[in-house]
Design a protein that fits this description.
Layout (H helix, E strand, L loop, with lengths): L1 H33 L3 H13 L3 H10 L8 H4 L7 H7 L13 H10 L5 E10 H15 L3 E6 L6 H15 L3 E7 L10 H7 L3 E5 L19 E4 L3 E5 L9 H4 L7 E6 L2 H17 L21 E8 L7 H12 L3 E5 L7 H12 L3 E6 L6 H10 L1 H4 L4 E4 L9 E4 L3 E5 L5 H6 L2 E7 L1 H16 L2 E2 L2 H5 L3 H11 L6
Parallel strand pairs: 2-3, 3-4, 9-10, 10-11
Antiparallel strand pairs: 1-7, 1-8, 2-5, 5-6, 6-7, 8-14, 9-12, 11-15, 12-13, 13-14
Length: 485
């Protein structure tokens, strides 16, 4: 032992050099061979090479994708329908319900997502917590067989406790209840709501504990999905977390705005399939049977809306939403309307938005006037001139922060759900969105966005360029880190 200590004392610089070379080499090769985005590969290799040992450690913690890559889960959604119902449920042609330009977009979706477009659905837009939480509470209180709830943030506040108590009451009356919360999002309030649920016997799980067990606002590989499925028949999905700040009676003039959607019909099968996969990934418990997946014919109507789930994330579904947005911009002919709280498109999306505007299509993009993430807002301002210069109209909304994520094209197709237009949503987090082939919902979204635009401020190049040099420099420096914000 003494001899070993002497060797370590005498040769520690040489040993440190060997460890550094080995760690740097292994980490650099791994980054170069596994990263699909050349910018990410270059960035990580640079960090590793210029920060020996520390760079390799950072890559081990934050750079390696440890997510299982498998697409088997989605395929089982197509076997849940009786053969006699397949022709009635599947939508083969969207031209009549949306427009001729969307036929190719449906083909793209068929190849991007394992889910098919399903008809005979009902969908209702819910405005903020004032409409969303009462509807969710009513559904939970009327549940007879099962409740599956997934959220990024589920706060331990007035609204969170009311929803948690409703889940506990459902559990006590014999309803099967499963609650899945992101491990980082669960730490946004103290104590976490998980304690209240678990103490009452509700099966609750946390999605992917981070390597460093603290709340990291900009942590990667998070589950950003929000959905609620009741009795396998009724669903909710969209962009809303569970927080009292979305309720006017509580937050008053500081209320945060958002948009959520209530759905019924065959699409609920796809929502439940997504939840079942994430739950099994997290807990190893398989959710099967009619208590979770109600018979397809139950409450099936003669008409309805064509919908499709598009899950995305750093697994086999990587790039799904990015592809859908690119496809939608490519087929747009008249008007594109976008609302996103965090607008940080990559160069491909910037080029697609710019090309769409240069083709003569009106491109309206709404961003918050008051953003809850200051760094993201600074990065947004650093690149927003690239859109404005090519003809896109970018509007800064008035009023309090709006968390809505809405995308609609030519009054016939919409994309709604949890995805922001930023690197985190498009590549680093698990998201869940819906394609909507329906003119009435598109019109409702258009009306909502146009109402915001009517009271918004149009951002011009002159406005962007008149900011003081130090502000513009700060924004550009923050923008350099935008892939990680």
């Amino acid at each position: 032992m003494a001899r070993l200590q002497e060797i370590l004392i005498e040769y520690w610089p040489h040993l440190l050099l060997v460890i550094s070379i080995v760690a740097t080499t292994v980490a650099s090769v791994h980054a170069a061979m596994t990263k699909q985005d050349v910018r990410a590969a270059i960035a990580w290799v640079g960090v590793i090479l210029f920060s020996p040992i520390l760079g390799a450690f950072l890559y081990l913690v934050a750079g390696i994708n440890r997510i299982r890559k498998d697409r088997v889960f989605a395929r089982r959604a197509h076997t849940l329908y009786d053969k006699d119902l397949i022709d009635k449920v599947l939508v083969h042609d969207v031209v009549d319900v949306s427009g001729p330009q969307f036929a190719s977009l449906k083909t793209l979706g068929d190849r991007v997502s394992d889910f098919k477009v399903l008809g005979l659905n009902q969908i209702k837009m819910l405005h903020g917590g004032d409409e969303t939480y009462p509807a969710m509470l009513e559904g939970i209180r009327q549940a007879k067989h099962s409740i599956a709830l997934q959220s990024y943030i589920f706060d331990h506040d007035t609204i969170g406790k009311e929803l948690a108590q409703a889940l506990i009451d459902a559990h006590h009356r014999g309803v099967h209840v499963r609650v899945l919360i992101d491990a980082v999002g669960a730490k946004y309030s103290h104590p976490p709501i998980t304690s209240m649920l678990r103490d009452a016997g509700v099966k609750t799980a946390l999605f992917m504990q981070p390597v460093i067990g603290i709340r990291l606002v900009y942590a990667n590989l998070r589950s950003h999905r929000k959905l609620l499925v009741i009795d396998g028949l009724h669903g909710f999905t969209g962009g809303m977390n569970i927080r009292e700040g979305f309720v006017t009676a509580i937050a008053k003039d500081a209320v945060t705005h958002d948009t959520h959607f209530q759905v019924n019909g065959p699409i609920v099968y796809q929502l439940m399939t997504n939840f079942a996969h994430d739950w099994e990934f997290t807990t190893s418990e398989k959710l099967t049977g009619e208590e979770w997946f109600a018979p397809a014919a139950t409450e099936l109507r003669d008409s309805g809306v064509a919908l499709r789930c598009v899950p995305s994330g750093p697994d086999a579904t990587l790039g799904s939403t990015h592809s859908m947005l690119m496809g939608a911009l490519a087929v747009a002919q008249k008007h594109v309307r976008i609302q996103s709280p965090y607008l940080l498109p990559d160069m491909a999306l910037i080029a697609a938005l710019s090309t769409t505007a240069r083709r003569g299509v009106i491109v309206d993009v709404v961003v918050p006037g008051a953003n809850n993430l200051k760094l993201v807002n600074a990065a947004m301002m650093a690149q927003i001139d690239q859109l404005i210069a090519t003809g896109c109209r970018v509007w800064r909304a008035s009023g309090t922060f709006d968390h809505s994520k809405l995308f609609t094209v030519d009054g016939g197709w919409s994309y709604i759900g949890s995805s922001n237009i930023d690197p985190r949503s498009l590549r680093l987090n698990f998201e869940l969105d819906l394609e909507v082939y329906d003119r009435s919902i598109a019109k409702e979204i258009e009306t909502k966005i146009d109402r915001i635009i009517a009271n918004a401020e149009l951002i011009t190049l002159r406005m962007v360029r008149k900011d003081p040099f130090l502000i513009r420099l700060r924004n550009k420096v923050i923008w350099l880190a935008s892939p990680y914000l």
